[in-house]
Each structure stands twice: as C-alpha cells, then as structure tokens.
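hey
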C-alpha cells in the first residue's frame, strides 16, 4: 500500500515500441575491439563474450592486453595466472598487439613468468609493462656473499652446504623483442638475464627498476642491440657486470638512480645526442664516471663529485638546468659558468667551521636566472643562507623555495654550542636589490612562525614582483586570517598572491 501511495502522483508513460536493433553488434570488429581495449582489464573485455555468439571471440583481437594477476582474485578485473595463460593462448593469430601490461600481486616464480615474456617477444609490436608486486617465492637465508642451504642426505640427515647466491637465485630471461617500442620492468625480485644476442630493433624506451640482480652486459645491450634507444632508466638495481660502458648515437635521456656497481668499477657513457642525465647514488665515491656528450642541457647530479674521478667531457659551460646536492659538489658547480635554472639541495653541516666554508663556497655557484632551493632546515641557517644566495644572484627572475621540516639534530647542536655558523651582520637586507625578480614560489608551507619570518625577510629586500604563489604542505590548510595576514605583508611588494583555493590581487 505504501508503494502504491508513493506512486499515486506519478504520470504513467505509454509503453515503448520494444527493443530496437543491436547497433553496437553491427559495428565492425576493429571498432568494437578498440572500445574493449579501454576497459580496466582484459578479464573485463573477455566477459563480453557472454553477450552473444557475435561477441564470443571479438575480445581475442583487442589491440591492448592488460592483466592484474592475483593468486585468489577478489576484484572483478583480476585474473589468475592460469587465466592469463588461457587468454594469451586464445589471442587471435591475426591481431596486432600494441600494448601488453601485466601486474602480478603476490609471489610468482620466474618459470611461471617466462612464457609471458616469450609471448611478448613473438607478438608484441609496441609497449610491454611487467610489474611484480609480491616478489619471488622465499629464497634461502643470505649469509654475506653465500647462503646456508640445507641439502638432504638420506632420510634423516641434512648436511649444511655453502653455495654461491648466484647459483640459488631464480633467473628470468628477457628475450629479444624485435618489435617492442617500450619495455618497463619493475619489482623483479630475482636475477634478470639480458640476452647476449638478438635485436631490439624498434626499442626507444627501456626502464628497469627495483631488480635484485641484472645479469649480462647492459652496456652491450644498449650499444649493440638497441640501435634506436632514446631513453634508458635503471633505478634500484644491482649490476653483476663490473663496469657499465655505453656508446650510443641515439641515446638522448639517461637516468641512473641507486645503481649498485662494484667499487672498482666504472661508468663510461659516450652519447653525442644525450641532452638529459640523472646520476643519483651509483656505487661508492671510488666509482669512476666519464660522460661524453656535447648536447647536455639538463643535469641532475646527486653523487659526490671528484674531478679526478668524475668527468663531463664535451659539455658546454652553459646549460639549461642543473640539480645537485650542495656541500660535496663545489667542483661540479665550477664546471659551469651559467645555468638557466639552478636547483640546490642543501645539506647543512653541523660544525661551525664546515658551515662557514659552506657559505664561502656558495660564491662559486654559476650565474642563474631561476633559483630553486631545497633542504634547508633550521632558522639559524635558512635565513642567512638565503640572503647570501640573493646577494650573489641579484639578476634572478624567479625564486622557488621548498621548505623542509626542521632537523632536530641540527637545532640541538646549535642550541648547545651557540650558533656561530653565520655572523648576524649577514642577516641584514638593506643591500639586497632584486629589481629583475618577477615570481616567487614557496612549497610545503605550514604557516609556522619561522616560515612567516622568511616572508618578512624576503619583503625586507628591495623587490617588486608580479606573482607570489604559496603551496601548503600535504594535509595543511591555511585559515582565512593567515592568508589575509600574508597578503598584508606581500601587498606592497607584489601584484598577485596565490594560494591553492584563494587569490589576492591589486
């Protein structure tokens, strides 16, 4: 009765003409397959085979395959590894595969994954992405360079035997993929064997990250087997080879981050077309590095720089962007006369003598138009160091500051010993003139007292800027009162003040 009462005031519509023709099924297979390729996974695309006989095999020709593999699938777009095998077996021989994405959530042995890579080597003419999130099944416990592995000797006796780690580690072979244009491999928690022969003739991007051990010669692969490679990234990997030697006429972008290489090893790169290089914590200080490129435009160097071991050959003395940790790379900064954008990751030193040397060496920084500063922590260091930088770079067009949380160790040291790192006379702003400055961006802002003091310090300089942008730290929301207070400080010196959700202008 209640339902009837609720429907009493509704106007009944006349019945429709009945179901119309199935216009979607009348579309060409190629168009339907292009639509199915946008579904969250191939498992979802395969379920459309239940629509009608017409749809039964349409999904087997989609141009992109995507699988999320779980041991016990709980989500509608997930598959088991057996279902993935069946899908690859059912894939049409006449289909053109342009993308294969496989995410494995849970431990999976290398022999289980190898057939999927072989399928890619035979069928793929495009992008391959393989991510292992659960790692490999547990290995024997490591003990230094060896492992203690019990081997059965009869029904009751277990004789401990020492075997080399390399003999016990599972190995996954990467076959030559002649038509692949991009390969991304991540989370390979066993040895990845590179092919000693075979061509990756179409490969333009190769990225390998978080891999326990890379066997084979990466340099040989890039130099001899990838004639069109433009982008190489190695992140969080261990190289079995003692050296990394690359000679490539096509390579344009190289990223090496947390690459473990033997201390007596070398990194040699000759790439005349390379314009982007990132080197971040690769081996120890004794690893020699030689980079030869005349096209270098952007350099990220978070690695101790010793001019006796580390060489940038053929590079111009003026580049577009330089990102480096200051404190251990003074010689690197002297390598360049001018940089359009200079990003300093400043690591403050605890001893007063080291801090004074640190400030003196800032005079050797290359000229720049855009200055980005990261990593300063204590108020005792932050404000005087910023002022010193502003004095030396008075032709700046833009300043970007990323405010890091205070380092308690540095604060406690200064409080115990009395901070004499930078004399108070250098805190004055009377002689700081920035008449070219147009923009200031501040990130990770929380509204803390010392951060507001930094704004006061900045506006104490002789500046007139067009734009000030303040980006708050994650989870922080500034009150309207705080925003108005900051606008009151900024208004005499800038035209526009921007927050995430509010803008002030005059």
């Amino acid at each position: 009765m209640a339902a009837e009462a609720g429907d009493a005031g509704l106007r009944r519509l006349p019945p429709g003409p009945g179901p119309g023709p199935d216009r979607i099924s009348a579309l060409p297979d190629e168009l339907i397959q292009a639509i199915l390729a946008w579904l969250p996974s191939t498992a979802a695309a395969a379920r459309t085979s239940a629509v009608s006989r017409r749809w039964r095999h349409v999904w087997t020709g989609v141009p992109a395959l995507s699988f999320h593999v779980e041991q016990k699938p709980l989500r509608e777009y997930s598959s088991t590894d057996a279902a993935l095998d069946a899908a690859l077996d059912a894939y049409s021989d006449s289909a053109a595969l342009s993308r294969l994405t496989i995410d494995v959530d849970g431990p999976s042995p290398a022999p289980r994954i190898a057939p999927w890579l072989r399928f890619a080597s035979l069928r793929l003419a495009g992008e391959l992405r393989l991510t292992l999130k659960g790692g490999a099944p547990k290995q024997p416990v490591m003990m230094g360079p060896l492992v203690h592995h019990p081997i059965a000797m009869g029904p009751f006796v277990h004789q401990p035997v020492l075997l080399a780690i390399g003999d016990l580690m599972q190995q996954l072979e990467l076959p030559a993929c002649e038509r692949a244009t991009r390969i991304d491999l991540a989370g390979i928690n066993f040895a990845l064997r590179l092919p000693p022969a075979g061509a990756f003739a179409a490969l333009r991007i190769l990225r390998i990250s978080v891999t326990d051990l890379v066997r084979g010669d990466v340099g040989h692969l890039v130099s001899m087997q990838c004639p069109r490679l433009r982008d190489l990234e190695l992140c969080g990997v261990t190289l079995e080879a003692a050296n990394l030697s690359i000679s490539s006429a096509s390579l344009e972008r190289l990223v090496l981050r947390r690459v473990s290489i033997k201390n007596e090893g070398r990194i040699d790169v000759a790439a005349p077309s390379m314009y982007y290089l990132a080197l971040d914590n690769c081996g120890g200080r004794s690893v020699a590095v030689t980079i030869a490129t005349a096209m270098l435009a952007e350099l990220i160097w978070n690695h101790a720089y010793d001019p006796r071991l580390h060489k940038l050959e053929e590079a111009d003395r003026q580049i577009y962007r330089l990102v480096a940790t200051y404190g251990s790379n003074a010689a690197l900064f002297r390598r360049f006369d001018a940089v359009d954008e200079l990003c300093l990751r400043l690591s403050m030193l605890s001893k007063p003598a080291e801090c004074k040397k640190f400030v003196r060496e800032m005079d050797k920084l290359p000229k720049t138009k855009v200055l980005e500063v990261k990593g300063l922590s204590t108020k005792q260091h932050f404000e005087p160091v910023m002022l010193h930088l502003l004095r030396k770079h008075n032709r700046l067009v833009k300043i970007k500051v990323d405010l890091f949380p205070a380092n308690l160790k540095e604060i406690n040291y200064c409080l115990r010993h009395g901070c004499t790192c930078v004399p108070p006379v250098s805190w004055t702003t009377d002689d700081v003139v920035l008449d070219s400055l147009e923009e200031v961006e501040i990130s990770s802002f929380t509204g803390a007292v010392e951060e507001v003091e930094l704004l006061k310090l900045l506006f104490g300089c002789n500046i007139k800027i067009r734009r000030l942008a303040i980006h708050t730290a994650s989870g922080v929301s500034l009150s309207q009162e705080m925003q108005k207070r900051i606008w009151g400080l900024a208004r005499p010196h800038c035209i526009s003040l921007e927050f995430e959700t509010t803008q002030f202008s005059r």
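Residues 1-13, 138-166 have pLDDT under 50 and may be disordered. The longest strand covers residues 205-215.
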